[in-house]
Amino acid sequence: MTPICAILGSVLLLGLPAEVAELVLPDQRGDRDSLSAHRGKVVVVMVVTAQRLRNLKGWERDLRERFEELEFLRVADVPEDPPVTYRDVADKLAARVPEEVAVLIDIDRRWSSALDLDTGRPNILLIDRQGHLIARFRGRPEPELVEEVSLRIEELLRGP
Fold first, then answer.
1. Staple 124 to which of 116, 137, 148, 158, CB 3.0 to 4.6 Å?
2. 100 DSSP β-pair partners
């Protein structure tokens, strides 16, 4: 199956929906973060279901090797079934994720709902310095897809 890459049209280039652009979420330690806190920087937002967070490791490794100046936001999309609480998810993440790695917990699935994301596989969202969603990709970090994402990141880092 070919990974999906969709470059968004001019309507969405004006910015992300307000419900995610300004959304503040807690991570597994209770610290809070948001996309708007990273304005002025190129940001890679990685959204995946909480059960498949390990699938983000390869993406982050590959992109960090190429681009030291990138900011990353990792978002765990929490499925509705079975019902869980923030504390349930936070405790599991705290036990499984290195302490220096923050994962935002989206218990209400606002990222995936607002952007119509299928979080069964990693979603890689590229955000420019002004907070605009420039591109979105979905899939595992296969070499061809990593190269395509990297080319878009290079363009963003060279831009204003």
1. 137
2. none
The Cβ of residue 61 has, within 10 Å, a number of other Cβ atoms equal to: 10
Distances (CA, A) of 146 to 2, 87, 143: 13, 33, 5
DSSP characters over 19-44: HHHS-EEEBTTS-EEEGGGGTTS-EE
Query: What CATH superfamily is the domain 4-158?
Result: Glutaredoxin (3.40.30.10)
Pairwise CA distance, residues 124 & 74, whole Å: 10
Tens digits of residue pLDDT in 9-38? 323 334 578 888 889 999 999 999 999 999
Amino acid identity, position 103: V
pLDDT of residue 159: 79
Give the DSSP letter of residue 75: E
Q: Considering the entire predicted model, what is its pTM?
A: 0.87
Kindly give the parts of the chain with pLDDT less than 50: 1-14
Q: What are phi and psi of 121, to 5 degrees?
A: -125, 160
pLDDT score of 102: 95
Distance CA 31, CA 18 (A): 21
Crossing angle of helices 56-66 and 143-158, rounded to 10°? 50
